Amino acid sequence: MDKIAIVILNWNGKKMLHTYLPTVLEHLGEDAVVYVADNASTDGSVDYLKSDFPEVKLILFDKNWGFADGYNKALKQIDAEYFVLLNSDVEVTDNWLAPLMDFMDGHPEVAACQPKLLSVRNKKAFEYAGASGGFIDRDGYPFCRGRIFEAVEDDKGQYDDAVEVLWATGACLMIRAADYFAIGGLDGRFFAHNEEIDMCWRLNLSGRKVCCVPRSCVYHVGGGTLPKDNPMKTYLNFRNNLTMLYKNLPEKELKSVMRRRWFLDYLAAVQTLVLNRHWGDCKAIFRARRDFKRWLPQFQKDRERIQTMQQAVKVDGRKPYSILWQYYAKGVRSFSQLP
Fold this sequence. Notes:
By secondary structure, the chain is of the alpha/beta class. It is built from 11 helices and 13 strands. The chain has helices spanning 14-26, 45-52, 66-75, 97-106, 177-182, 195-205, 231-248, 251-274, 279-295, 300-313, 323-329, and strands at residues 2-10, 32-38, 57-60, 80-86, 90-92, 110-119, 134-136, 142-144, 147-148, 151-152, 163-165, 172-176, 209-220.
């Protein structure tokens, strides 16, 4: 059994692997092994890895399973105490791995953790995808220590304390293999986006903890597969976020939250069209709401199981306020300004 299996999921990411895989291998340490799980790339990634990085272990798929199910299928083939889910566009730093491992070894109640995520493009600023640990508000909107919507803070050491969070970023996520499989892993039906938030929420509801360990720091490019202005990204984010809420919300809040989200989602669709003139994003939100309603029945058993688990543990790590109200009405632009 490996102590740590660093698993990079790849789909046509040869350029990213060329740029960032050497840093992973350089700062590996003696307790870790690197795997690349390839989602049927067509850009020569596999041949490149075989010729230039023979020390990397390969897991090859015959189709693109997406982020969620790609990891589910890859991790089933790996025997390790800890998994590190690592994006191919992450530049690691010297001694990035040891603080994560030491923290997990010293805190058996913690199922998963993340490092501090800074931006490759501006190494003094947090990175959008995870910053220094993630939360969601009462309506399911995600935000981070260091990032609220498009407002990304500079890193001045203000979030350097290790803290419990609701979710850890899938860009660089260490998780105990036992917890990963016990909770059912990532929801493969999501394909990509919100899948790590959903999994971490389920971990919380099962009585396990998720933390950010800023003593470890990595740099992330972000948007390597789908840029922020891609309608498919908008579609997946809205559809999966609504599905996550349906699965995990307490029964007493489900109807009220879903009513608010109905109004807020269609308001967002109008805004993208009228203010931003993004017809593709507008259509993506309408399609996401339609498809959410269509596939809802297949998540009923998941919800029943999670509700039973939630009643036993009585944990809900959401913030009780609306991040939309804090951001747009009150002008809050940093996590430290939040209630």
